[in-house]
Amino acid sequence: MNQETVNRAGEKVLGIIGIVFNILAIALIGFGMASYSSVQGTPEFQQYIEDEIMADPAFSNPEEAQMVIDMMSSSFNIVGWVLIALLALSTIFAIVALVNLRKRGKASMAGVFFILAGLFAGLLSLTSILFYIAAIMCFVRKPRASNNQNLRDDDFKYQEDQLRRKEESVRREDELRRDDTTTTRNDDDTPYRPL
Fold first, then answer.
1. Is the pTM of this model over 0.85?
2. Rounded to an integer, what distance in angstroms lies between the CA atom of residue 102 and that of residue 106?
3. Which sequence spans correspond to the domains of the chain?
């Protein structure tokens, strides 16, 4: 059965926009991590720590405050690298989905990869929503049977209908002939009886 190909431009555009958003987010997170590490050693940052954090009455001694600051700095770097890794995985899945969209009949596989890309981009971020929409479009939009195939099917049905009508007319003619022959025989077989 011939099938038309579905134009997947919408899915491709959404995938490319999502990839661009992922790359921008990776760049922003990397810039934020680099900025934080460069600011961390400056005298202004040390002054801010002494004024704001070490003066906090919740900390009983300066060693506790320094330990919290060091833990926050290391956790900021770890969270940054984890986010970069997740966004990189999301970008890779989105690229694989775009490659699958180019292959005929692989739209469902592309939809699965778009869902994975959306999950790694964040459950409900703007990027993940774009990937989810692209996945839904991959699953929902199916190719239709081509017009040529529909014309052939209609032509075949027409021919079938014509053949059936012809057979019915032949059958009716045969029945009429049988009825005519039986009535003429009965008339000929009965002898003439005068009154």
1. no
2. 8
3. 9-140, 148-189
